[in-house]
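Figure 2 data, in text form.
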Amino acid sequence: MDIIHFNRMKKHVLLILWVLVAACQGKPAYIPVVDAALNDTNSFFYTDFSAYPPLRNHLPVGVFDSGTGGLTVLEAILSSRLLEGENFIYLADQANMPYGNYPAEGKTDFLRELIIKDALFLLGHQVKIIVVACNTATAYGLEDISDFLDKSGSGIKAIGVINAGVNATLDRIDRNEDLAIGVLATVGTIASGGYENTFKALAKERGYTGDLQIISHGAAGFAEAVDSEKDFVDPQAIAPREEYRGPSSGHPEYKIDANLLPAYGFDFSSNHMLYRGSVDQPYDLQLNSAGNYARYHLLSLVEKLRNSKNPQPLRYLVLGCTHFPYESHTLSLMLSELREYNEGGQYPYRDLIDEKVILIDPAFETARELYTTLVKDSLLTLKMGKTQAAFYISVPLEDPGLNWILDSAGRFSYDYKYGRDPGVFTRDVNIVPFSADNIDSLTRERLRSLRYTWPLLPFGSE
């Protein structure tokens, strides 16, 4: 055996031992890209922190999400007026979204690698702090990012949205109150236990003695519908689709219950629901709008509460995904509808839903945490002037040899996206500036609702 092969084998054995020791100690498993970013000066991912200027106040704040949903966090930061004059760099990893599906497909390690790569992209643009504006990325990758930054000795910090959302909720509750808190998030975020565990830990730390019931629900396809992912919504469709992956009449886990159709209150206009039969007697139902995804998953959460032991009234609803605030109006409207919903002279949901349920958007608390962190570290900008921002998005690499990995819409096929393994470092995406070519018209129209962010976008003058 030559020395090269021996060294490779030795490195492989040491790596296995490192992983086993880390697992026994409850530490995150090894992520190959982290080693490359710290030690391999020839790697594309190597991050040279020595190139950072000694004075960092003028550097931008980095923000990333798996798509455009994280712009709601940026909007909260801008609307707070606490950080006027700061500059921002935003990354939407659209090509690899939704992040929430990777754990369900057994690809948690690959997801963690994607999250680290997002952070490395921002660090390559010399940001002074990283905001993980994605609940799934916070649950699965914030610890990895923080650990990497600690090892780098850079002094750069990262903050996430889960603790912010939990603190914002607990701040509103008396310590001896009995009530239910709903959490709508991606399937991956719920599977991580991020919100439930954080609620329990922080409630105990704060000395809460009341019965706080945490009702969590993984809203499959909701974030994807907001971002117009074709596997979940298709504005051009007029009938149920074979390639559809969202809740449906026949879905084994996310079934649209025909008995609950009056309570869902679905919008059947403009093909927002795909079905066979008639509106009065539909079957083969498929959701085809973000609003109907909101309605389906909210009722699913309330039904979980209804079937729980000694249910307390729902008083707070945490929007545990940055995409969900776009449907805040629908969610608030439906909560009121359910309180008044009459079924044979009975009101099945009235005692389960408080008269005024408060929607918690973790973005606003994240903005406050960002401000206090920058103040504490003396990193607020020293300049006066208007805020500027650069927006980037990942898109599949344009290469004729890679056409087999794309679907009819030019996005990664589901099987390819969730079939990849960590440590391979295949270049299959480009990261490019936002433009009308890579942000579809429906998404651009939705982004118009972001009063402070919209003018900063490259198409904000439309």
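Caption note: Confidence is low (pLDDT under 50) at residues 1-28.
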